[in-house]
Design a protein that fits this description.
With 354 residues, this protein is α+β, with helices and mostly antiparallel strands. It starts with 6 loop residues before the first helix and ends in a 5-residue tail after the last helix. The chain has 12 helices and 8 strands. Strand 3 and strand 4 form a beta hairpin. It has 3 domains: 72 residues, no CATH class; 120 residues, no CATH class; 111 residues, no CATH class.
Length: 354
């Protein structure tokens, strides 16, 4: 997949004050018929829509496209293209660091129960280590074996148990961020992937960001219960202390017990555990009945809608107010299902545009 830059990003890199200036240059390229000043679709850029006049359609640019645009100025402005290439390199590094951060965040979300805390460090199993490094079992095993053979388990720079790694009760290796950084450095310098510039760059990025990413995710895990409690409290306030299924309100004369039901359950979708849209305020009796009906399996908004289909007596749709409430609830849960069934909110929020 190409790493595409928006017109605004491209204009900023080239030092233009607006995208209008950028597209004026693009139009110049399109008007020329010599190979020297040519922008080629799928190589230098992609159109964001397929219809409409060519000179009116917005574009996304590849790095080679930006380099081609920069080259036009090189004859007039000394070292201009070198400056642009430096900016592209810096951007490439930032983007790669962001991708590594997202990969680590994903690993923590998917396997938060597999961690072992020790000495203020968090140790993760082989599976997560391989995932973060974007390698395979053979590559991982080869690197660990090299570290052993080359004496990295001894001396002042040795890998230390309870610092870089630990051995679990079932005799499996777990790695800390410091240990993963050492493996990444070994792979960058000594494995067969050293021939690949992109893979070397990935390993270099891992060594630079893995420690900070681990610290950030450990902090998030520790604060998760408090954040969830706050989200439920906020959801109750927004619901005006009403059950959003029956419409019953908590009043001085009706001490209704209200619960915050996680539509996507918090165990399989911790990324949505403190997301207020994922918390539905309902009566305690309905909450208990749903989980008794659904069992201990993971649940989704669709599961709750299916439950309501079977228990439509909970909603008196004969009244216009109840009918509107039900329609609103169905729309909300349907949208939530569509938006997040296969999409992690956390990964989206971590995306950084450059």
């Amino acid at each position: 997949m190409k790493d595409l830059l928006t017109a605004k990003e491209t204009a900023n890199i080239l030092g233009f004050k607006s995208t209008k200036q950028l597209y004026a240059l693009v139009d110049f390229f399109d008007s020329r018929y010599d190979d020297q000043w040519e922008l080629i679709e799928h190589i230098h850029f992609e159109f964001t829509r397929s219809s409409g006049p060519r000179n009116r359609r917005p574009r996304l640019f590849t790095e080679s496209g930006v380099e081609a645009l920069a080259a036009y100025y090189d004859a007039e402005k000394k070292d201009f293209i070198k400056k642009i290439l430096d900016l592209l390199t810096q951007r490439r590094v930032r983007v790669r660091k962001t991708l590594v951060s997202r990969r680590i965040t994903q690993a923590f979300f998917n396997s938060s129960t597999d961690f072992i805390p020790r000495n203020n460090l968090q140790f993760v199993p082989k599976k997560i280590t391989i995932d973060v490094l974007q390698t395979n079992t053979q590559g991982y095993n080869n690197s660990v074996e090299r570290l052993r053979k080359e004496g990295s388990l001894e001396g002042p720079e040795a890998l230390k148990e309870d610092t870089h790694f630990l051995i679990s009760e079932d005799n499996n290796l777990f790695w800390s961020s410091k240990g993963i950084a050492r493996i990444a450095m070994d792979m960058k310098e000594k494995s067969s992937l050293k021939r690949s510039k992109s893979r070397r760059a990935w390993m270099e990025a891992v060594t630079k960001v893995v420690d900070d990413c681990f610290k950030k995710e450990i902090k998030r895990l520790k604060s998760a219960p408090r954040n969830i409690e706050k989200a439920i409290k906020d959801a109750k306030r927004l619901s005006h202390d009403k059950c959003l299924v029956t419409g019953e309100a908590k009043t001085r004369g009706n001490q209704l017990i209200l619960c915050g039901h996680h539509l996507f359950d918090k165990h399989t979708r911790p990324d949505l555990a403190d997301h207020i849209d994922n918390i539905l305020i309902i009566k305690d009796s309905i909450h208990r009945e749903f989980h008794s009906h659904h069992g201990s399996e993971s649940c989704t908004p669709k599961d709750f809608l299916d439950f309501l289909d079977k228990r439509n007596d909970l909603i008196n749709i004969d009244t216009s107010a109840a009918s509107r409430r039900y329609d609103k609830l169905v729309l909300r849960l349907t949208k939530l299902q569509e938006n997040f069934a296969n999409n992690h909110l956390k990964y989206q929020s971590d995306l950084v545009s450059y």
